[in-house]
Amino acid sequence: MSCLRPRILALHALFWGLVSLRVFGAALLSDEKAAVAVTKAMTAPCWQLEEFVVAKECSACEGFHSKSIPACSQTGFVETINCTKSNREEFKSCRSAKMEEHLFWKFEGATLALTVVFAIVVVVRQRSLDRQASDKVRRQIECI
């Protein structure tokens, strides 16, 4: 009998309405995501969708190319790609060996500098602790 009260019926209707809205809403969102994925596939570069051949190895972007080719803005280096199926020529951002070597040596230098700084900190701290220990022993001997 308590299930037939209007307030409980309204709460049940609201609850099941929200549940069904969530289920159907998720289905609609997945349909929208699929449509967006198809649209992205149409606008995606050909080298993401099909086989390709590197026509020109990774090289630095020159002044004009860095403004006109969007791939140049990511790393400053670009390689020319020929897609096999669509036979299109596109540009792909890349990382050059020179740039990688430069970043490696910067990292090594920073690591070495931090090693030296922390070694100095350890030596200073050890000397301070040694001084405190010898002062403590000296005070204990003086008290005797």
UniProtKB/TrEMBL annotation:
GO terms for biological process, alphabetical: mitotic cytokinesis
Keyword Cell division: yes
Keyword terms, alphabetized: Cell cycle, Cell division, Cytoplasm, Cytoskeleton, Membrane, Mitochondrion, Mitosis, Signal, Transmembrane, Transmembrane helix
Main location: cytoplasm
Subcellular location: Cytoplasm, Cytoskeleton, Microtubule organizing center, Centrosome; Cytoplasm, Cytoskeleton, Spindle; Membrane; Mitochondrion
Leader peptide range in chain numbering: 1-21
GO CC field: centrosome; membrane; midbody; mitochondrion; spindle
Transmembrane segments: 103-124
InterPro entries in alphabetical order: JTB
Membrane topology per record: Single-pass type I membrane protein
Assembly information from the UniProt record: Interacts with AURKA, AURKB, BIRC5 and INCENP. May be a component of the CPC at least composed of BIRC5/survivin, CDCA8/borealin, INCENP and AURKB/Aurora-B.
Family as reported in the entry's similarity comment: Belongs to the JTB family.
Biological role: Required for normal cytokinesis during mitosis. Plays a role in the regulation of cell proliferation. May be a component of the chromosomal passenger complex (CPC), a complex that acts as a key regulator of mitosis. The CPC complex has essential functions at the centromere in ensuring correct chromosome alignment and segregation and is required for chromatin-induced microtubule stabilization and spindle assembly. Increases AURKB activity. Inhibits apoptosis induced by TGFB1. Overexpression induces swelling of mitochondria and reduces mitochondrial membrane potential.
This protein's name: Protein JTB
Source species of the chain: Phoxinus phoxinus
